[in-house]
Amino acid sequence: MAQEYARTDSGGWERVDRTGPGGAVLLGDRELRELLKHLPDRVYRKVVRQVTSKMAAPILRAARVNLRAKQSVEARDILAASLKKKTKTYQHNGAVVTVIGAAWPKGAHAHLVEKGHRMVTASGTVVGFVPAMPFVRPAFDANKGKVMQIAAKALRVGVEREAKKLAKT
What we know:
The protein is an alpha+beta fold. 51% of the residues lie in helices and 19% in strands.
């Protein structure tokens, strides 16, 4: 989810809006969005990190299946083992991002498999082209609906859980 922050007079940051044009909007969950706006930053980051991590799981599984269907046995095993998800929270704006990709060094060539590449000799002569064999993008496209369902459910559960914790304190 995209977030917008504004600098306060005291030098801190204030959350302005969590459902800007670049953010994911869950239609029909107006009360959930309102709850998200009023959660403390620490709780918001915790819930959104958990949700984005859950959202990445079906895409990661599908990418591994796609990879196994398209590659030679040796190449697919190396790349499939290197596919990981990593969740990061940016401190300057609080944005939470989960990245799915191949880990270095074994997966360093994943982008070449996904997008294709030229074959070039040491002298710089192009001698051919290796066609693209995408495995992450089709996994993402095939799981969009499922991911949004997971997000809606996990956000609701996470917000309710954290709201109960806050109510006890």
